[in-house]
Amino acid sequence: MRGLVMKKILVIGPALAEWSEIKAIEASLQFLVPQYSIDFIDPLEEVNADTHRKDFFAGWHDKLQTLIPGYHAIFGFSLGGVILQHCLDLVEQENKPLVFISVPSFSDDLLSKRLDQVIRLIKENLMAVALHELNRYVFYPYEAPQHFNLNHPERAALRLSRGLQFVLEADSRPMLQKTRVKYLHLIGENSQLVNSGNVITSPNSQLVIIPRSGMRVLQNNLTDCMPPMIKFLEESA
């Protein structure tokens, strides 16, 4: 008797200074592993100083055209979700359930101000200060790490500045307003970056505000994240 084929989830991660930081997200999704296998993709793996926004999103559109058919569901965290918002036509074509975690639809004044500040600090070669500033918002309402050990500081600075710039420049509202894709979006009630001020909903979307959490909703309050995620995936099976 042949074994059951495990369903696969594709996760496109956030803009991380170094991809090794994805381990925290990997750990938070372990509750799905008994039923699903999960593949994680670094959204900034091929980014360089000359990568422009239009080329970045067009390149991901081409890449996902090949990848999406092989997965049961697609998850996007922050920048990863912004990428998926620019590829909603592919998700709709393949009829895949979609989960967004802390993904802005556009940059409102507050998000723009905060990301601009971090990018400026990076460009001034103040990477440690930039990370402290960013993590202050990302980890809120909990304490952010005070020390950073970067294996490749120059590459980390480039990755983070370009990744945040792509988020800053993106406006997904035209795509979200017309999409028929069914998706679940989790945001933290205490988030200092992604909140009701810069997130719009679509006719088939479900927005869930997770209490006692910020940007890192799964790490902050996994207990309240699990039920809507499991229910959404089961209903989309």
From TrEMBL:
Protein name as it appears in the record: Alpha/beta hydrolase
Superkingdom of the organism of origin: Bacteria
Matches recorded under Gene3D superfamilies: alpha/beta hydrolase
